[in-house]
């Protein structure tokens, strides 16, 4: 029989994470204008939440963060079921399950390798420039909406960008997000997220701005879109962090001058020399 939760019937599994499963659902609330609408339902057991240090508190923070931003490039949380007392907690999101930008990069890289094996060399590695520009512009638009509400994402990377069937990029997974307000400073020394996307200050163990860490991770994401490779690498976490801290950047010769200028100016070692969010949005490459 079909499994019903609240106003939703659950269907196929869309994915699985450390927290639990994500399933596709349908709105079955009679008389609702959303009747029959497809949604994505993230299912977490109370037990798995409790296994995480401060799990309940973190989950409530994630819900608060994602609920406070309403923007077309940020995933929308539509409903929460079972938060107070359920054995399972269900987060109901809008459906944006075409694929992640990471999936797109991996598929593109595979095709490129097949062509190279056949002796057909591509002039450049990454996604087409116009596509990179469109994805990055939407990502920056989503980050701008978050920051204007005092929300920092803290784990921006291609696998946390989903594409929906309308060609909209959605920033997802606010599990590491923070809200900056009169009680919470933008400065921290707590590193969360993905090592390859950390900024130099964090790699050196210094206090850093969470707002700036989002911009840095967005720039690393843009580099990956354009080149299908990370700007800073290492065989160990120590080597990786040492390379990030030095921030010696090699920009591919095949990139346009505007691409080199934007990525180079966003990935400078000194925080005060990097482009601000406003300057990025006004950069000639995005116009």
TrEMBL record:
Catalytic activity, reaction form: L-threonyl-[protein] + ATP = O-phospho-L-threonyl-[protein] + ADP + H(+); L-seryl-[protein] + ATP = O-phospho-L-seryl-[protein] + ADP + H(+)
Keywords from the UniProt entry: ATP-binding, Kinase, Magnesium, Manganese, Metal-binding, Nucleotide-binding, Serine/threonine-protein kinase, Transferase
Domain of life: Eukaryota
UniProt record, GO biological process: intracellular signal transduction
SMART domains: S_TKc
Entry-linked InterPro entries: Kinase-like_dom_sf (IPR011009), Prot_kinase_dom (IPR000719), Protein_kinase_ATP_BS (IPR017441), Ser/Thr_kinase_AS (IPR008271)
Cellular component, GO, one term: cytoplasm
Sites where the protein binds ATP: 42
PANTHER family in alphabetical order: MAP/MICROTUBULE AFFINITY-REGULATING KINASE, NON-SPECIFIC SERINE_THREONINE PROTEIN KINASE
Entry's family note: Belongs to the protein kinase superfamily. CAMK Ser/Thr protein kinase family. LKB1 subfamily.
Stated name of the protein: non-specific serine/threonine protein kinase
